[in-house]
Write a structure and sequence with these properties.
Length: 60
């Protein structure tokens, strides 16, 4: 997952004009934001317990 956030940050920086601050700090912030977003999205949508799915399948 970290590799994906690194790729996204690099793509964003390649396609933009950079004027403020330091490039390394911006890259770090973009990478951290991307990693946090990917992690929270995975936690939100990844099912850990399939009991409800199995019960629905068995009862139908």
């Amino acid at each position: 997952m970290a590799h994906t956030s690194l790729d996204k940050a690099a793509a964003i920086l390649q396609q933009s004009r950079y004027t403020d601050g330091t490039l390394d700090e911006t890259y770090k912030k973009l990478t951290e934001f991307g990693f946090e977003w990917l992690s929270s999205t995975k936690d939100k949508y990844h099912a850990h317990d399939f009991g409800a799915v199995y019960e629905k399948y068995i009862n139908n």
